[in-house]
Request: fold
Amino acid sequence: MSRVVRGWVVSAGLAAGLVVALLVLALGRGGPAPAATTAAPDFARDVAPIVRQTCLGCHRDGGIAPFAFRTERDLANRAALVVAALEGRRMPPWPPSAASPQYVGEAAHTLDARERTTLVDWARAQLVRPGAARRGTPVGPPPAPPTAPRRGESLLELAMPTSYRPAAAKGSTDDYRCFLLDPKLTRDAFVTSARIVPGDAAIVHHVILYRIPEASVSRATALDGDARGPGWTCFGGPGVGGGTSGSPRGILDDAGWIAAWAPGFGAGRLRAGTGIELPAGSRIVMQVHYNLLGGPGPDRSATLLRLAPPSAHLTPLETMLLPAPVELPCRPGHTASPLCDRTTSIADVVHRFGPVGQTNNWLNVLCGEQRDTEVTTCTRTLNETTTIRAVAGHMHLLGRSIRIQVDPGTPRARTILDIPVWDFDNQAAKPIKPVTLHAGETVKVTCRHVQWLRDRLPAFAGQPDRYVVWGEGTRDEMCLGILTVTHP
Ligand code: HEC
Reply:
Protein backbone atom coordinates (compact mmCIF):
# COMPACT_ATOMS: atom_id res chain seq x y z
CA MET A 1 0.00 0.00 0.00
CA SER A 2 1.57 3.23 -1.04
CA ARG A 3 1.08 6.83 -0.07
CA VAL A 4 -1.11 6.00 2.88
CA VAL A 5 0.94 7.74 5.46
CA ARG A 6 0.14 6.23 8.79
CA GLY A 7 -2.67 5.22 11.03
CA TRP A 8 -3.75 8.41 12.70
CA VAL A 9 -6.28 7.02 14.99
CA VAL A 10 -3.87 4.53 16.44
CA SER A 11 -5.63 2.09 18.71
CA ALA A 12 -5.36 3.01 22.33
CA GLY A 13 -3.82 -0.37 23.01
CA LEU A 14 -1.16 0.04 20.40
CA ALA A 15 -0.36 3.57 21.53
CA ALA A 16 -0.19 2.48 25.15
CA GLY A 17 2.03 -0.43 24.18
CA LEU A 18 4.39 1.91 22.42
CA VAL A 19 4.48 4.29 25.33
CA VAL A 20 5.34 1.40 27.59
CA ALA A 21 7.98 0.19 25.15
CA LEU A 22 9.55 3.63 24.96
CA LEU A 23 9.42 4.00 28.74
CA VAL A 24 11.09 0.65 29.21
CA LEU A 25 13.67 1.73 26.69
CA ALA A 26 14.23 5.03 28.43
CA LEU A 27 14.40 3.49 31.88
CA GLY A 28 16.66 0.75 30.59
CA ARG A 29 19.11 3.38 29.50
CA GLY A 30 18.86 5.02 32.89
CA GLY A 31 18.27 8.76 32.74
CA PRO A 32 18.58 11.25 29.95
CA ALA A 33 19.78 10.42 26.45
CA PRO A 34 23.56 10.33 26.21
CA ALA A 35 25.10 13.70 25.39
CA ALA A 36 27.22 14.10 22.27
CA THR A 37 30.39 13.96 24.33
CA THR A 38 29.69 10.46 25.66
CA ALA A 39 29.11 7.35 23.55
CA ALA A 40 26.74 7.99 20.67
CA PRO A 41 23.32 6.35 20.87
CA ASP A 42 23.21 2.80 19.57
CA PHE A 43 21.34 2.47 16.31
CA ALA A 44 19.43 -0.75 16.92
CA ARG A 45 18.65 -0.04 20.56
CA ASP A 46 18.05 3.72 20.61
CA VAL A 47 17.52 5.06 17.11
CA ALA A 48 15.64 2.43 15.11
CA PRO A 49 12.58 2.30 17.43
CA ILE A 50 12.08 6.07 17.09
CA VAL A 51 12.55 5.97 13.32
CA ARG A 52 10.11 3.05 13.00
CA GLN A 53 7.43 4.87 14.92
CA THR A 54 7.93 8.42 13.70
CA CYS A 55 9.50 8.34 10.24
CA LEU A 56 8.53 5.14 8.40
CA GLY A 57 4.95 6.22 7.80
CA CYS A 58 6.40 8.33 4.98
CA HIS A 59 10.02 7.20 4.57
CA ARG A 60 9.25 3.72 3.31
CA ASP A 61 9.06 2.10 -0.12
CA GLY A 62 6.10 3.67 -1.89
CA GLY A 63 5.69 6.28 0.86
CA ILE A 64 5.28 9.99 0.17
CA ALA A 65 8.83 10.92 1.23
CA PRO A 66 11.46 10.96 -1.53
CA PHE A 67 13.55 8.17 0.04
CA ALA A 68 13.02 5.18 2.33
CA PHE A 69 14.83 4.45 5.60
CA ARG A 70 15.40 0.71 5.18
CA THR A 71 18.71 0.32 6.97
CA GLU A 72 21.10 2.25 9.15
CA ARG A 73 22.99 3.09 5.97
CA ASP A 74 20.02 4.99 4.54
CA LEU A 75 20.10 7.31 7.53
CA ALA A 76 23.87 7.46 7.95
CA ASN A 77 24.39 8.50 4.33
CA ARG A 78 22.09 11.46 4.95
CA ALA A 79 23.35 12.28 8.44
CA ALA A 80 23.89 15.98 7.69
CA LEU A 81 20.41 16.31 6.20
CA VAL A 82 18.92 14.44 9.16
CA VAL A 83 20.58 16.82 11.63
CA ALA A 84 19.40 19.85 9.66
CA ALA A 85 15.84 18.56 9.23
CA LEU A 86 15.51 17.68 12.91
CA GLU A 87 17.08 20.84 14.27
CA GLY A 88 15.12 22.94 11.81
CA ARG A 89 11.99 21.14 13.08
CA ARG A 90 11.02 20.25 9.53
CA MET A 91 10.88 16.54 10.31
CA PRO A 92 8.66 14.85 11.17
CA PRO A 93 6.26 17.30 9.53
CA TRP A 94 3.59 18.47 11.96
CA PRO A 95 1.39 21.13 10.38
CA PRO A 96 -0.63 22.32 13.43
CA SER A 97 0.84 25.35 15.19
CA ALA A 98 1.17 25.91 18.92
CA ALA A 99 -2.26 27.58 18.76
CA SER A 100 -3.77 24.14 18.15
CA PRO A 101 -4.73 21.87 21.02
CA GLN A 102 -2.72 18.80 21.96
CA TYR A 103 -4.21 16.04 19.80
CA VAL A 104 -4.91 12.55 21.02
CA GLY A 105 -2.03 10.34 19.89
CA GLU A 106 0.15 13.33 19.02
CA ALA A 107 3.14 11.88 20.84
CA ALA A 108 3.31 8.95 18.41
CA HIS A 109 3.68 11.33 15.47
CA THR A 110 6.05 13.90 16.89
CA LEU A 111 9.40 13.80 18.67
CA ASP A 112 9.81 14.84 22.26
CA ALA A 113 13.05 16.55 23.32
CA ARG A 114 14.70 13.28 24.34
CA GLU A 115 13.86 11.52 21.09
CA ARG A 116 15.07 14.45 19.02
CA THR A 117 18.33 14.60 20.96
CA THR A 118 18.88 10.87 20.51
CA LEU A 119 18.44 11.08 16.74
CA VAL A 120 20.54 14.22 16.39
CA ASP A 121 23.37 12.84 18.58
CA TRP A 122 23.45 9.63 16.59
CA ALA A 123 23.44 11.48 13.25
CA ARG A 124 26.19 13.86 14.43
CA ALA A 125 28.36 10.88 15.39
CA GLN A 126 28.01 9.59 11.81
CA LEU A 127 29.43 12.88 10.55
CA VAL A 128 32.47 12.65 12.82
CA ARG A 129 33.19 8.97 12.32
CA PRO A 130 31.75 8.03 8.94
CA GLY A 131 31.74 4.30 8.34
CA ALA A 132 31.88 3.40 12.00
CA ALA A 133 28.30 2.27 12.14
CA ARG A 134 27.07 -1.23 11.36
CA ARG A 135 25.50 0.06 8.22
CA GLY A 136 23.40 -2.91 7.26
CA THR A 137 21.33 -2.94 10.45
CA PRO A 138 17.68 -2.92 9.37
CA VAL A 139 15.42 -0.22 10.72
CA GLY A 140 12.69 -2.82 11.00
CA PRO A 141 9.05 -2.73 9.95
CA PRO A 142 6.76 0.24 10.62
CA PRO A 143 4.03 -0.30 13.19
CA ALA A 144 1.40 -2.52 11.58
CA PRO A 145 -1.87 -0.82 10.69
CA PRO A 146 -4.32 -1.54 13.49
CA THR A 147 -6.72 -3.67 11.48
CA ALA A 148 -6.83 -6.83 13.56
CA PRO A 149 -10.50 -7.32 14.44
CA ARG A 150 -11.57 -6.97 18.02
CA ARG A 151 -13.91 -9.50 19.59
CA GLY A 152 -17.11 -9.79 17.60
CA GLU A 153 -15.74 -7.80 14.68
CA SER A 154 -15.27 -9.03 11.14
CA LEU A 155 -13.12 -7.87 8.25
CA LEU A 156 -14.57 -7.07 4.85
CA GLU A 157 -12.56 -6.26 1.76
CA LEU A 158 -14.33 -4.46 -1.09
CA ALA A 159 -12.62 -3.58 -4.35
CA MET A 160 -13.72 -1.80 -7.49
CA PRO A 161 -15.45 -4.38 -9.70
CA THR A 162 -12.79 -4.06 -12.42
CA SER A 163 -9.91 -1.73 -13.11
CA TYR A 164 -10.79 1.65 -14.56
CA ARG A 165 -8.89 3.91 -16.90
CA PRO A 166 -9.83 7.49 -15.98
CA ALA A 167 -10.78 10.03 -18.63
CA ALA A 168 -11.28 13.76 -18.20
CA ALA A 169 -13.55 16.16 -20.05
CA LYS A 170 -11.84 18.44 -22.55
CA GLY A 171 -9.84 21.17 -20.81
CA SER A 172 -9.80 19.27 -17.53
CA THR A 173 -7.27 16.96 -15.91
CA ASP A 174 -9.63 15.56 -13.28
CA ASP A 175 -12.02 12.65 -13.31
CA TYR A 176 -14.36 11.94 -10.41
CA ARG A 177 -15.74 8.44 -10.60
CA CYS A 178 -18.18 6.71 -8.28
CA PHE A 179 -18.07 2.95 -7.91
CA LEU A 180 -20.89 1.03 -6.27
CA LEU A 181 -19.74 -1.54 -3.71
CA ASP A 182 -22.03 -4.05 -2.06
CA PRO A 183 -21.14 -5.11 1.49
CA LYS A 184 -24.06 -7.60 1.31
CA LEU A 185 -25.15 -6.83 4.85
CA THR A 186 -28.12 -8.83 6.08
CA ARG A 187 -28.04 -7.17 9.49
CA ASP A 188 -27.10 -3.70 10.72
CA ALA A 189 -23.44 -3.08 11.45
CA PHE A 190 -21.01 -0.40 12.57
CA VAL A 191 -17.85 0.38 10.65
CA THR A 192 -15.02 0.72 13.17
CA SER A 193 -12.16 1.23 10.73
CA ALA A 194 -11.84 1.74 7.01
CA ARG A 195 -8.53 1.43 5.29
CA ILE A 196 -8.46 2.73 1.75
CA VAL A 197 -5.92 1.15 -0.54
CA PRO A 198 -5.39 3.30 -3.62
CA GLY A 199 -4.57 1.19 -6.67
CA ASP A 200 -2.38 3.66 -8.55
CA ALA A 201 -1.23 6.19 -5.97
CA ALA A 202 0.16 8.47 -8.67
CA ILE A 203 -3.31 9.38 -9.93
CA VAL A 204 -5.58 8.81 -6.92
CA HIS A 205 -5.99 12.31 -5.48
CA HIS A 206 -8.58 11.42 -2.88
CA VAL A 207 -11.16 8.75 -2.06
CA ILE A 208 -14.37 9.12 -0.09
CA LEU A 209 -16.61 6.25 0.95
CA TYR A 210 -20.29 7.26 1.14
CA ARG A 211 -23.06 5.32 2.79
CA ILE A 212 -25.99 4.75 0.41
CA PRO A 213 -29.18 3.90 2.32
CA GLU A 214 -31.36 1.11 0.98
CA ALA A 215 -33.94 3.64 -0.28
CA SER A 216 -31.37 5.19 -2.65
CA VAL A 217 -29.82 1.97 -3.91
CA SER A 218 -32.03 1.69 -7.02
CA ARG A 219 -31.03 5.21 -8.10
CA ALA A 220 -27.35 4.36 -7.65
CA THR A 221 -27.76 1.10 -9.57
CA ALA A 222 -29.43 2.98 -12.41
CA LEU A 223 -26.57 5.51 -12.62
CA ASP A 224 -24.09 2.63 -12.63
CA GLY A 225 -26.02 0.82 -15.38
CA ASP A 226 -26.40 3.91 -17.59
CA ALA A 227 -22.73 4.84 -17.69
CA ARG A 228 -20.20 3.06 -19.87
CA GLY A 229 -17.52 1.12 -18.03
CA PRO A 230 -17.42 0.58 -14.27
CA GLY A 231 -19.01 3.29 -12.12
CA TRP A 232 -20.24 6.72 -13.19
CA THR A 233 -19.00 10.29 -13.31
CA CYS A 234 -19.79 12.05 -10.05
CA PHE A 235 -18.53 15.48 -9.18
CA GLY A 236 -19.31 16.80 -5.72
CA GLY A 237 -20.95 13.66 -4.39
CA PRO A 238 -22.46 10.36 -5.52
CA GLY A 239 -25.35 12.21 -7.20
CA VAL A 240 -28.03 9.76 -6.12
CA GLY A 241 -30.31 12.59 -5.07
CA GLY A 242 -31.39 14.05 -1.78
CA GLY A 243 -31.01 12.13 1.41
CA THR A 244 -27.80 10.52 0.19
CA SER A 245 -26.57 10.14 3.70
CA GLY A 246 -29.82 8.55 4.83
CA SER A 247 -29.85 11.04 7.68
CA PRO A 248 -32.65 13.34 8.74
CA ARG A 249 -29.95 15.98 9.18
CA GLY A 250 -28.86 17.99 6.18
CA ILE A 251 -25.97 16.83 4.03
CA LEU A 252 -23.58 19.34 5.64
CA ASP A 253 -24.43 18.21 9.14
CA ASP A 254 -24.27 14.51 8.35
CA ALA A 255 -22.41 13.91 5.13
CA GLY A 256 -22.84 10.14 5.22
CA TRP A 257 -19.11 9.62 4.95
CA ILE A 258 -17.73 6.31 6.07
CA ALA A 259 -14.12 7.22 5.44
CA ALA A 260 -12.01 9.64 3.50
CA TRP A 261 -8.53 9.21 2.19
CA ALA A 262 -6.24 11.91 0.92
CA PRO A 263 -2.47 12.11 1.05
CA GLY A 264 -1.55 11.96 4.71
CA PHE A 265 -4.60 10.03 5.84
CA GLY A 266 -3.97 6.73 7.51
CA ALA A 267 -5.92 3.60 8.26
CA GLY A 268 -7.89 5.10 11.06
CA ARG A 269 -9.33 2.82 13.66
CA LEU A 270 -12.08 4.86 15.24
CA ARG A 271 -11.92 5.56 18.90
CA ALA A 272 -13.14 2.65 21.05
CA GLY A 273 -16.86 2.84 21.69
CA THR A 274 -17.63 4.66 18.44
CA GLY A 275 -18.51 3.53 14.95
CA ILE A 276 -20.25 4.55 11.74
CA GLU A 277 -23.69 3.08 11.25
CA LEU A 278 -24.13 0.90 8.18
CA PRO A 279 -27.70 -0.45 8.15
CA ALA A 280 -28.58 -3.78 6.49
CA GLY A 281 -29.23 -3.32 2.78
CA SER A 282 -26.94 -0.27 2.49
CA ARG A 283 -24.45 0.00 -0.30
CA ILE A 284 -21.22 1.96 -0.36
CA VAL A 285 -20.18 4.39 -3.04
CA MET A 286 -16.45 4.75 -3.40
CA GLN A 287 -15.78 8.12 -4.99
CA VAL A 288 -12.30 8.36 -6.47
CA HIS A 289 -10.87 11.66 -7.62
CA TYR A 290 -8.32 10.93 -10.33
CA ASN A 291 -5.76 13.57 -11.15
CA LEU A 292 -4.61 12.81 -14.68
CA LEU A 293 -1.57 15.03 -14.30
CA GLY A 294 -0.12 11.96 -12.51
CA GLY A 295 -0.44 9.48 -15.39
CA PRO A 296 -2.99 7.50 -17.41
CA GLY A 297 -3.85 4.73 -14.96
CA PRO A 298 -5.58 2.26 -14.90
CA ASP A 299 -6.58 2.06 -11.26
CA ARG A 300 -8.30 -0.47 -9.08
CA SER A 301 -8.65 0.85 -5.56
CA ALA A 302 -10.02 -1.11 -2.65
CA THR A 303 -11.09 -0.73 0.93
CA LEU A 304 -10.74 -2.90 3.98
CA LEU A 305 -13.52 -2.41 6.52
CA ARG A 306 -13.84 -3.68 10.04
CA LEU A 307 -17.43 -4.25 11.06
CA ALA A 308 -18.91 -4.55 14.54
CA PRO A 309 -22.37 -6.03 15.23
CA PRO A 310 -25.24 -3.89 16.59
CA SER A 311 -24.78 -5.63 19.93
CA ALA A 312 -21.57 -3.62 20.32
CA HIS A 313 -23.84 -0.59 21.05
CA LEU A 314 -21.38 1.90 19.67
CA THR A 315 -21.99 5.64 19.65
CA PRO A 316 -22.62 6.63 16.02
CA LEU A 317 -20.10 9.03 14.49
CA GLU A 318 -21.06 11.50 11.81
CA THR A 319 -19.08 13.76 9.52
CA MET A 320 -19.98 17.44 9.67
CA LEU A 321 -18.75 19.58 6.80
CA LEU A 322 -17.83 23.20 7.26
CA PRO A 323 -17.22 24.73 3.81
CA ALA A 324 -16.43 28.35 3.00
CA PRO A 325 -16.30 29.96 -0.44
CA VAL A 326 -13.02 30.68 -2.23
CA GLU A 327 -12.84 34.12 -3.87
CA LEU A 328 -9.22 34.59 -4.86
CA PRO A 329 -8.65 37.31 -7.48
CA CYS A 330 -5.78 37.51 -9.98
CA ARG A 331 -2.70 39.38 -8.79
CA PRO A 332 -2.14 42.94 -10.00
CA GLY A 333 -0.15 42.66 -13.21
CA HIS A 334 -1.39 39.09 -13.80
CA THR A 335 -4.85 39.91 -15.12
CA ALA A 336 -4.41 39.05 -18.80
CA SER A 337 -6.52 35.87 -18.77
CA PRO A 338 -10.28 36.18 -19.41
CA LEU A 339 -10.64 33.78 -16.48
CA CYS A 340 -9.61 36.64 -14.17
CA ASP A 341 -13.25 37.65 -14.42
CA ARG A 342 -15.22 35.94 -11.65
CA THR A 343 -18.31 35.22 -13.77
CA THR A 344 -16.22 33.74 -16.59
CA SER A 345 -14.29 31.64 -14.09
CA ILE A 346 -17.44 30.20 -12.51
CA ALA A 347 -18.86 29.50 -15.98
CA ASP A 348 -15.69 27.54 -16.73
CA VAL A 349 -16.07 25.47 -13.56
CA VAL A 350 -19.72 24.77 -14.44
CA HIS A 351 -18.62 23.78 -17.95
CA ARG A 352 -16.17 21.24 -16.52
CA PHE A 353 -18.18 19.87 -13.63
CA GLY A 354 -21.83 20.73 -14.16
CA PRO A 355 -24.18 22.45 -11.69
CA VAL A 356 -21.86 21.68 -8.74
CA GLY A 357 -19.64 24.39 -10.27
CA GLN A 358 -22.07 26.91 -8.74
CA THR A 359 -20.99 25.85 -5.23
CA ASN A 360 -19.20 29.14 -4.65
CA ASN A 361 -22.35 31.19 -5.24
CA TRP A 362 -24.30 28.93 -2.95
CA LEU A 363 -21.63 29.20 -0.25
CA ASN A 364 -21.80 32.99 -0.46
CA VAL A 365 -25.45 32.70 0.55
CA LEU A 366 -24.66 30.32 3.41
CA CYS A 367 -21.57 32.16 4.68
CA GLY A 368 -22.20 35.79 3.69
CA GLU A 369 -21.02 37.51 0.51
CA GLN A 370 -17.24 37.52 0.10
CA ARG A 371 -15.35 38.82 -2.92
CA ASP A 372 -11.80 39.51 -4.10
CA THR A 373 -10.07 38.24 -1.01
CA GLU A 374 -7.33 35.81 -0.02
CA VAL A 375 -9.09 35.04 3.27
CA THR A 376 -12.58 33.57 3.42
CA THR A 377 -14.62 32.34 6.36
CA CYS A 378 -17.82 30.63 7.28
CA THR A 379 -19.46 30.54 10.69
CA ARG A 380 -22.21 28.05 11.38
CA THR A 381 -24.51 27.93 14.35
CA LEU A 382 -25.26 24.51 15.75
CA ASN A 383 -28.89 23.57 16.21
CA GLU A 384 -28.36 20.65 18.55
CA THR A 385 -25.86 19.38 21.07
CA THR A 386 -22.78 18.24 19.19
CA THR A 387 -19.53 16.72 20.42
CA ILE A 388 -16.51 17.25 18.18
CA ARG A 389 -14.13 14.29 18.33
CA ALA A 390 -11.75 14.79 15.41
CA VAL A 391 -10.89 17.61 13.08
CA ALA A 392 -9.32 18.00 9.65
CA GLY A 393 -8.94 20.65 7.01
CA HIS A 394 -9.10 20.28 3.26
CA MET A 395 -7.83 22.66 0.61
CA HIS A 396 -6.07 22.06 -2.68
CA LEU A 397 -2.71 23.32 -3.91
CA LEU A 398 -3.14 27.10 -3.53
CA GLY A 399 -4.26 26.78 0.09
CA ARG A 400 -1.89 28.55 2.47
CA SER A 401 -3.46 28.35 5.93
CA ILE A 402 -6.58 27.02 7.60
CA ARG A 403 -8.06 27.48 11.04
CA ILE A 404 -11.10 26.04 12.76
CA GLN A 405 -12.46 27.79 15.85
CA VAL A 406 -15.26 27.17 18.27
CA ASP A 407 -17.35 30.08 19.62
CA PRO A 408 -15.07 32.77 18.14
CA GLY A 409 -15.45 36.22 19.67
CA THR A 410 -16.83 34.87 22.94
CA PRO A 411 -15.16 34.03 26.26
CA ARG A 412 -15.53 30.36 25.28
CA ALA A 413 -13.52 30.86 22.10
CA ARG A 414 -10.96 28.19 21.32
CA THR A 415 -9.01 27.01 18.32
CA ILE A 416 -9.32 23.34 17.47
CA LEU A 417 -7.11 23.37 14.36
CA ASP A 418 -4.56 25.90 13.23
CA ILE A 419 -2.34 25.09 10.27
CA PRO A 420 -0.29 28.17 9.42
CA VAL A 421 1.47 26.59 6.43
CA TRP A 422 -0.83 24.22 4.59
CA ASP A 423 0.76 20.95 3.48
CA PHE A 424 -1.29 19.22 0.81
CA ASP A 425 0.51 15.94 1.53
CA ASN A 426 -0.46 15.99 5.17
CA GLN A 427 -4.21 16.27 5.61
CA ALA A 428 -4.79 13.63 8.24
CA ALA A 429 -7.74 14.06 10.59
CA LYS A 430 -6.62 14.63 14.16
CA PRO A 431 -8.53 13.26 17.12
CA ILE A 432 -9.09 15.83 19.87
CA LYS A 433 -10.22 15.60 23.45
CA PRO A 434 -14.00 15.74 22.92
CA VAL A 435 -15.48 19.26 22.80
CA THR A 436 -19.22 19.40 23.50
CA LEU A 437 -21.19 22.35 22.12
CA HIS A 438 -24.85 23.18 22.59
CA ALA A 439 -27.45 24.59 20.24
CA GLY A 440 -26.63 28.22 19.50
CA GLU A 441 -22.86 27.81 19.79
CA THR A 442 -20.79 28.34 16.65
CA VAL A 443 -17.99 26.78 14.64
CA LYS A 444 -15.94 28.82 12.19
CA VAL A 445 -13.55 27.91 9.40
CA THR A 446 -11.05 30.42 7.99
CA CYS A 447 -8.92 29.73 4.91
CA ARG A 448 -6.27 31.68 3.12
CA HIS A 449 -5.41 30.94 -0.50
CA VAL A 450 -2.60 32.63 -2.42
CA GLN A 451 -1.83 33.02 -6.12
CA TRP A 452 1.94 33.12 -5.75
CA LEU A 453 2.05 29.40 -4.97
CA ARG A 454 1.22 28.76 -8.63
CA ASP A 455 4.68 30.12 -9.52
CA ARG A 456 6.24 27.31 -7.47
CA LEU A 457 4.13 24.25 -8.26
CA PRO A 458 4.63 22.04 -11.32
CA ALA A 459 0.86 21.47 -11.54
CA PHE A 460 0.47 25.16 -12.50
CA ALA A 461 3.31 25.37 -15.04
CA GLY A 462 2.14 27.58 -17.90
CA GLN A 463 -1.17 28.35 -16.16
CA PRO A 464 -1.77 32.10 -15.83
CA ASP A 465 -3.62 33.52 -12.83
CA ARG A 466 -7.37 33.06 -12.85
CA TYR A 467 -10.05 34.12 -10.40
CA VAL A 468 -9.98 31.00 -8.24
CA VAL A 469 -13.26 29.70 -6.86
CA TRP A 470 -14.56 26.54 -5.23
CA GLY A 471 -14.31 23.72 -7.75
CA GLU A 472 -13.69 20.02 -8.03
CA GLY A 473 -10.47 20.18 -10.05
CA THR A 474 -7.02 19.81 -8.55
CA ARG A 475 -6.26 23.34 -9.81
CA ASP A 476 -9.56 24.70 -8.47
CA GLU A 477 -9.83 25.27 -4.76
CA MET A 478 -11.75 24.29 -1.70
CA CYS A 479 -11.98 25.53 1.87
CA LEU A 480 -13.39 22.80 3.99
CA GLY A 481 -13.37 22.04 7.69
CA ILE A 482 -14.20 18.40 8.41
CA LEU A 483 -15.48 17.54 11.88
CA THR A 484 -16.11 14.07 13.20
CA VAL A 485 -18.99 14.46 15.65
CA THR A 486 -21.45 12.62 17.84
CA HIS A 487 -24.82 13.73 19.28
CA PRO A 488 -24.80 14.69 22.05
C1 HEC B 1 4.33 12.85 7.07
C2 HEC B 1 5.39 12.32 6.26
C3 HEC B 1 6.82 12.32 6.79
C4 HEC B 1 7.28 11.91 8.01
C5 HEC B 1 6.48 11.29 9.14
C6 HEC B 1 8.70 12.13 8.02
N1 HEC B 1 9.09 12.67 6.83
FE1 HEC B 1 10.98 13.24 6.30
N2 HEC B 1 10.29 13.90 4.51
C7 HEC B 1 8.99 13.84 4.09
C8 HEC B 1 8.89 14.48 2.77
C9 HEC B 1 7.62 14.58 1.95
C10 HEC B 1 10.18 14.92 2.45
C11 HEC B 1 10.61 15.67 1.19
C12 HEC B 1 10.83 17.11 1.48
C13 HEC B 1 9.56 17.82 1.75
O1 HEC B 1 8.62 17.69 0.97
O2 HEC B 1 9.47 18.53 2.78
C14 HEC B 1 11.03 14.55 3.56
C15 HEC B 1 12.40 14.85 3.62
C16 HEC B 1 13.24 14.45 4.63
C17 HEC B 1 14.66 14.71 4.66
C18 HEC B 1 15.46 15.45 3.60
C19 HEC B 1 15.81 16.84 4.04
C20 HEC B 1 14.64 17.77 4.04
O3 HEC B 1 14.48 18.49 5.03
O4 HEC B 1 13.89 17.79 3.05
C21 HEC B 1 15.14 14.16 5.82
C22 HEC B 1 16.58 14.15 6.31
C23 HEC B 1 14.01 13.57 6.52
N3 HEC B 1 12.88 13.76 5.76
C24 HEC B 1 14.09 12.91 7.73
C25 HEC B 1 12.98 12.45 8.45
C26 HEC B 1 13.09 11.84 9.75
C27 HEC B 1 14.38 11.57 10.50
C28 HEC B 1 11.81 11.53 10.13
C29 HEC B 1 11.37 10.93 11.43
C30 HEC B 1 11.86 11.55 12.63
C31 HEC B 1 10.92 11.97 9.07
N4 HEC B 1 11.67 12.52 8.07
C32 HEC B 1 9.54 11.83 9.09
C33 HEC B 1 7.93 13.29 4.75
C34 HEC B 1 7.97 12.81 6.05
